[in-house]
From TrEMBL:
Residues 317-364 form the MannoseP isomerase/GMP-like beta-helix domain. Pfam families: ManC_GMP_beta-helix, NTP_transferase. It comes from Subtercola lobariae. This is Mannose-1-phosphate guanyltransferase. GO terms for biological process: GDP-mannose biosynthetic process. Residues 14-295 form the Nucleotidyl transferase domain. One of its GO terms (molecular function) is mannose-1-phosphate guanylyltransferase (GTP) activity. InterPro entries: GMPP_N, ManC/GMP-like_b-helix, Mannose-6P_isomerase_type2, NTP_transferase_dom, Nucleotide-diphossugar_trans.
Length: 373
């Protein structure tokens, strides 16, 4: 087994920071996506939380961020230690296979044999040292040739996550908790998710993938040969003066598809997917109901308040208020309410309907009110 230092010398973290988080509108916008907000209560953005969690693994110089050109300034402000060579800018979003695959292809050219771990920019994770211990095990199984996921024990039949069925221990020295995966199902329908929850041996996919870059790229190539060809062409030109021209020519034609479909589902069928169960607390804070739950510690009668200068008067009310305006907000006798106040848009709903915010966003886009998105 390679020693820890040898693995860390070959390891890079990648943060794909691209999702807008439309279920968190009007807080989350195209120009202020979810990862730029403080939703954990740490006093800094989720992106910065992610950086701080990953930096102790192999150092700040070994973290790459993939984000949209429009977010460059905001990302660099959040992450002053981010090195220029570690910023990958997209002219437009092409989803996670392109974002993570390009980072892997660039890093593999710079350092053949590199191990890459990709981590969402916008999750809330507790117990950071436990998180890193889990990732260290995943580096070992990645080095042994497995594409490795991190699993979270499900608490409800969510249809917003991938589901991982772990079968037996992998038996790789240095990764005692790692298991073989025989099935990965991305975002199943509700009856299937209910079945998986009842079965008790499925985990949620935490949206983290750790693998050797060459193994990841080979898998993308088996699923989507044209997409891989585009990624390799981009990577070849990346550190040369030809980068701009090749990006303009190749990037817009890359297929938009999530890595869960191109890599996780097929590699499980081929016996190449592993999972390390995460023992840290994890929340993807995907909608306002989960924010309310996170900040009230699960106590239904509490009112969670987010916003530095929030001025809230509450009488017998519960749920969550996010205040990004200077208005005074008063609530009387409303339970499980969600109020999100910004200078140009106000959302009022309940926790039970929080998932439907995305439909509002779609309707606004269609109705020509895209200026508030
Ligand atoms: N740079 C960049 N990043 C992107 C893009 N599209 C998505 N991402 C990033 O890729 C990660 C995954 O985002 P999605 O593809 O939108 O996935 P999801 O709906 O959140 O589902 C994934 O995460 C769940 C856990 O939160 C998983 O359970 C699920 O299986 C899946 O991996 C996030 O960090 C997101 O910012 C893009 O075009 N560009």
């Amino acid at each position: 087994m390679p020693n820890d230092n040898d693995l860390l010398d070959r390891y890079y973290s990648v943060i794909p920071a691209g999702g807008i988080g439309s279920r968190l509108w009007p807080l989350s916008r195209a120009d202020a996506p979810k990862f730029l907000h403080d939703l954990s209560g740490s006093g800094q953005s989720l992106l910065r939380d992610t950086w701080d969690r990953l930096a102790p693994l192999a150092g700040e110089q070994r973290i790459m961020v993939v984000t949209g050109r429009a977010h460059r300034a905001a990302v660099e402000k959040q992450l002053p230690a981010l090195q220029d060579a570690n910023v990958v800018l997209e002219s437009e979003p092409r989803e996670s296979t392109a974002a993570i695959g390009l980072a892997a292809a660039i890093l593999e050219r710079r350092q053949p044999g590199v191990i890459v771990g990709s981590f969402a920019a916008d999750h809330v994770i507790g117990e950071p040292e436990r998180f890193r211990q889990t990732v260290r095990q995943a580096m070992v199984t990645a080095d042994a040739g497995f594409i490795t996921t991190i699993g979270i024990m499900p608490t409800e039949p969510s249809i917003g996550f991938g589901y991982i069925h772990a079968v037996k221990p992998l038996g790789v020295e240095g990764a005692p908790d790692a298991c073989f995966v025989d099935t990965f199902v991305e975002k199943p329908d509700l009856p299937t998710a209910e079945k998986y929850l009842a079965a008790g041996n499925y985990m949620w996919n935490a949206g983290m993938f750790i693998s050797r870059a060459d193994v990841l790229l080979e898998q993308i190539g088996r699923s989507r040969p044209e997409l891989l060809a585009g990624l390799l062409e981009l990577a070849e030109a990346w550190d040369t003066p030809r980068r701009g021209a090749v990006v303009d020519q190749v990037w817009p034609d890359l297929e938009k598809i999530a890595i869960d479909y191109t890599v996780a589902e097929p590699s499980a069928l081929e016996g190449k997917l592993a999972v390390v169960p995460g023992t840290f607390s994890w929340d993807d804070v995907g909608d306002f109901a989960s924010i309310a739950k996170l900040h009230s510690g699960g106590r239904k009668s509490e009112l969670a308040i987010l916003g530095k200068n929030a001025r809230i008067l509450s009488d017998s009310s519960s749920g969550v208020v996010v205040s990004h305006s200077n208005r005074v907000i008063s609530l009387i006798g409303v339970e499980d309410i969600v109020v999100v106040d910004t200078p140009d848009a106000l959302l009022v709903t309940t926790s039970a309907h929080a998932q439907r915010v995305k439909a509002v966003v779609d309707a606004l886009r269609l109705s020509g009110s895209g200026d508030v998105l």
